[in-house]
Amino acid sequence: MTLGSIEHADPRSPGVQPRPALGVQFVGIPEFADLGTQVSQEVSAALAGRRTVDQALDDGQKLAEDVARNYK
């Protein structure tokens, strides 16, 4: 079922509601869900005023680069 969903996803209309940008997001690595959670926490901290947006984005980028290093 998962593979079929991925193969038949329409990047022009990937959900039940309209999307502002084209694309379908899927990364087939185990760390992807955890990375998304960690980056979301960084963004939430910036929205709450506990850090700047630039700090949150920089830290999110570093987290992503750490994961990417394992797949070069």
Q: How much helix is in the residues?
A: 40-55%
Give the termini distance in whole angstroms. 29 Å
Report the mean per-residue pLDDT as an integer.
87
Could you give the count of β-strands? Answer: 0
Main sheet record = none
Helix count from the secondary structure assignment: 3
Low-confidence stretches: none
Secondary-structure element string = HHH
Write down the Rg.
15 Å
Q: In one word, what is the shape? A: globular
* Structural class computed from helices and strand pairing: mainly alpha
Strand content: under 5%
Defining key terms:
72 residues, mainly alpha, globular, 54% helix
Tell me what you see in this structure.
The chain is globular and about 40 Å long. The two termini are 29 Å apart. It contains three helices and no strands. It has 72 residues and is an all-alpha fold. The protein has helices at 2-7, 32-47, 53-69. Helix 2 (32-47) packs antiparallel against helix 3. The longest helix is centred in the C-terminal third of the chain and has 17 residues, at 53-69.
